Task: inverse folding
């Protein structure tokens, strides 16, 4: 077996969007029977929530869709840029922050997850943190399902 591919999902605080994307991608690769070929994680741009569980609304959304999740928030590190093959940001600010933080010589492909959305490519995955209810988290989940499936399909078809 060749070396495992590595994907890292990033959002501002690592308690909403990136944990949902991580859990969705883990389910996609597990369902495809290729979970052993990947290493997947998520992290934050900032350190505000380091060590905390995801937002309860994110956890509820994942639970409603039978996605298991046990990780805690962490902040991206310089070594992540050299360790991961793919680093996904959720919006243009994440992408700007990633470019600013990237050490010279990094080979990780930095991608906006929403660019893989077959229904509306280039769309950001909006931060649901300040939403009052669960609707924003459900929308985040739906977008992540479409984007992760499309990305995985491109990788499996050697298009990426």
Result:
């Amino acid at each position: 077996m060749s070396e495992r591919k590595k994907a890292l999902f990033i959002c501002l605080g690592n308690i909403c969007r990136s944990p949902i994307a991580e859990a969705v991608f883990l389910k996609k690769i597990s369902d495809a029977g290729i979970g052993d070929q990947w290493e997947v994680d998520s992290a934050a741009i900032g350190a505000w929530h380091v060590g905390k569980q995801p937002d309860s609304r994110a956890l509820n959304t994942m639970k409603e869709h039978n996605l298991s999740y046990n990780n805690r928030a962490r902040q991206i590190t310089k070594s992540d840029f050299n360790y991961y093959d793919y680093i996904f940001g959720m919006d243009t600010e994440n992408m700007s922050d990633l470019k600013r933080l990237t050490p010279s010589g990094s080979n990780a492909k930095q991608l906006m997850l929403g660019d893989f959305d077959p229904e509306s490519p280039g769309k950001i995955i909006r931060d649901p943190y300040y939403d009052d209810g669960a609707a924003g988290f459900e929308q985040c989940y739906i977008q992540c399902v479409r984007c992760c499936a499309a990305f995985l399909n491109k990788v499996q078809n050697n298009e990426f």
Q: What stands out?
A: The mean pLDDT is 95. The two ends are 19 Å apart (CA to CA).
